[in-house]
What does this fold into?
Amino acid sequence: MTQDIFEAWAIPSSVVVPGATSDSAVAPELSIRSLSIESRWLNELTDILVEGSGRLKNRKARELARILGTVGSRFLKEGDPLRTKALELLPQASGLSVQMARVVLDGMAADWAEDRLLGLLENEFGTSEGLDGFVKQDGCRTMAIGADLCVQIVSGSVPGVGVTALIRSLLTKAPTLLKPGRGDVVLPVLFMQALAVVDQDLADHVAILYWSGGSSDLERGVLDRASVVTTYGGDESVESIRALTPVTKRFVAYHHRISVGVIGSQALTSGLVEQTARDVAYATAVFDQRGCVSPRSIYVESGGDTTPQAFAEYLASALESIENDLPGGHLELEEAAALHQVRGAAELLAVSGSPGGIYHGEKASWTVIFDPDSELRSDHVGRVVRVESIENLSDLIKRLRPEKEHIQSVGVAGMGTDLDEFAEELGRIGVSRIAKFSGLPFPPSRWHHDGGSPLRDLVHWVDLEEVGG
Amino acid sequence: MTDISPTTTSPLGMAPEELDGLASKLEVRFSADFTSRWSDLEFEELALHAFNVQFQHNPVYRRFCEGKNAVPTSVTSWQQVPMVPTTAFRYLDLVTGDHSSVRMVFRTSGTTSTTLSPGRHLVSRPSLYHASLLSNFREHLLPDAEKIKFISLIPSPAEMPHSSLSYMVGVAADTMSSEVQWFVDGEGVLNSAGLIKTLNDAALAGEEVLLLGTAFAFVHWLDELAGRELRRLPPGSRIMETGGFKARARDITKEQLYKSLSMTVGLETNRIVNEYGMTELLSQLYESHLTQPNELQEGHAPPPWLRVRALNPTTLEPVAENETGILAFFDLANLGSVCHVLTEDIGQVIDGRIHLEGRFPGAEPRGCSRAMDELMTSSQVTRR
It folds into this structure.
């Protein structure tokens, strides 16, 4: 069997590639080749990025949006070699099925097009000119200034997150060092290869490097040189980066997050319940429950036309059907081991007289656990979703409260008219997004990511007051 | 949840005769010569008998098996016996026989980092457990000496009454130690000065010792020593180390730890034996450096009454010998609960021995090592 090798780096053209590399097989036919990095080389590279900051600051934000958008939209264009390459590599590099890779790429890259990026700038700053010079604001003049160096460390496994992160910091005119997540090295590197073709100068302000595991020696050096640091990942990885980051740096943390869903009785009528189940199945399926936007638990209002347990059965059959169009991805051995634990424990609980049920595919990994006692937990084991019964919405808030620090989005259906009040209550416990299930996997580019501002969090403002002659 | 400490005795319940009969038979077998391996036929017969008993006298397990159409009349080999995942020990009291006969409850390490309930293993027949752990312990740690001085960095069973690891060391010490000293208390605080003095005294007196600890207890101790070397222990001394290497305090490989430990106390690294165990299995697996010092035997050896397989992650069928799979154990010492247990651990099984590939980082820590690490880390913070 031949092994394709993907070189997982992009560095400024003036930097000499160190000789040594190491390969790690991510799939039977694909290896990821990484540079063997030493601190000294990495520190020199980051110094070069910092030195180039002034050149990047001289460019106009709108122009950057246009160029980045030109590259980004190539991932959407059927037949474009960039898209073809991405679709060829993604299933192996990220463990997604072929069909799912397509859905994920379409969903993520939609936000990389020029109009979306201009919309994002406008939404964040009112006008993109606020990044190019002083603009009047309440009698004072102010300007947003991006980092001299933005270091972004991503430890998650959702493909596309790295490119979105990269685009955000480049829009703020910040030279960027990106360490993508292990399952997300392909898209940022392809993006940079394409960017270098249309704008080598812009590409020279970016480095993408992957190294495995936490390497504090490497990380300390780049964090010292950064002015803004963003991290994406589990609490432990974010915590370890935070501990290495000097206090004077702006630190933007996207720590472990999960999403949930809630279904009110209006979506449980005989006419609607199947569509509701299909929408929930789609939100569950898209990232194989690996995304922060993936709904791990669905809370179903009792007393409607469909009981919560019956809804679990509808959801099970929707997940079985979706397996044809959007098959589940590859599970790593450890994930498969965890899946067997969850399934086996749920089966035993069910026969022990606990009023629950479990539904799962044969070879397919989808699993629905109807668990009124909210005992069984699972994380990151493919398409596993729990269905719980709730009496009413205040019951839901009570259930969510213990996990409030980690809940990001709430998918909703059939909530009726009191949605505003409900949304506010959710907001108060820390939820940052409420959306319909079909929109859950792909938030709009202007979303308040984990409650923050995607671009404003990356800049600082300088106010120029009236100082007279 | 019932809270019975191992020291509490409850009135013996009515145990089904068949269960008692098999337990007594196994107890005798476990205590007998630790021959290399039981024949397949011998193991099969006992395993199917155990399944039959568990099917009859463990109603939850019975319904689980019936749901899979696996009943004693249809199951013809131990491999077909339905497996219970270790996670199920968190949610259910998997007792075969009368619940009133439960004498001890062991808990998996409940850690501060998880909201999950800890797993628990209810034990009805301490004598069967003792027979299993003692002959196995002797075989792998004391094949050459009747008694030895125990120096433990594992808290005593009095300090940690629900830890199966503490209990195991306590029972072993009762019969195999000339003297036992405990240097980590139930709060995880290490008495480093006392430990150093005891080791140095033993070295001066030429007294062989068995030093026992979790990987992280050793790491914490070595951190405190900061490279300082002690007097060389007599070469017949030995170390039992247990626990994984996915450190929270700091990353360290098994090789690094063993090298550092061996330098510190002046023993060869082949005097260090790793023990692999978990609360859900009443038998342990050990490396066999001391038993077969001249053979290069890697991996952990099971006792004759335990068989292990590495399974395909999709089909749960056995994988080939050089392939990695999910580890499943059939442990006859688990007669009082469920014998066939599917773990989250992965590794290879070569010639009946397991070659572990690290515990799943996201998996809840079993055994004691990680919990001890957290305990010791927090106690260090409070001590300052």
Q: What stands out?
A: The CA atoms of residues 229 and 271 of chain B lie 17 Å apart. Residues 40-57 of chain B form the longest helix (18 residues).
